[in-house]
Amino acid sequence: MATYSERASCLSADPHDDIRDPVLHYFGCLEAWQRDDFFDTASPYWIKQVKTLKDSGILRPDAERRIRAQRGAYRNHCAEELHRVSLILSALAADEKKSYLLTDLASSLARWRSSRQYELGIELVRKWRADRRLPNGAAITYPKNETGKLYNPHSNIKVQVIAFKEGLPCNLDPQYATGTFPNQVTNVHDLLRHEKPLLSSLLQQKRIDNAGAESMWIHIPSNNMLWVEEVIARYYGEEKPTREQMRDGDEASRTSRLLRDYFWRGQEYGDSTKPSSHFMRPFSEFIAPSRRHMDSEAEKVVLYAPYLHWETSRQLNFITRKTEESMAEYTYNQRRAADSEKRRRMKDREGLKMPNLPSLWPFSRKLTFAEPEREGLRYAEPRRTRFQSKHPLGQYLLGMARLYEEVRNYEDTSLIQRYLFANPPLHPRRTLDQGYYTTVRSTRARNRTQVLYRATTPAKSKSHQFDSSTGLWTCPRSDIPSEGCDICRENVRKVSSVVMVDQLWMWVLSPQVVITCFPKRYGLRGPDPSGVFEAVQKRLIRDRPIRSVFAIAQTILDECSDTLFRRMKDFSEQPPVLDLFSEAIQDVSRKQTLETRRLWDWIDRARRINRQQEPHQTIGTLPWTMNTEGNLEQEIQDIVEELEIMISLTKTQFDVYKKFIQHASRFLEDRSSGYWCSDGEALWFGPRLLVKVEERIRHLESLLKDASSAADLVKDLSQLRQQQDSVVQALQSVKLSLDSMDQGRTVMVFTIVTIIFSPLSFLSSIFGMNNAEFGNNQWKVADQLKLILSISVGVTALALVFASRRVRAVAIYVVFCIAHPLRTSRRVSRLLGYGYWRMRNMRETVPESSLAARAITGV
Question: Does 447 lie in the same domain as 422?
Answer without folding.
Answer: yes
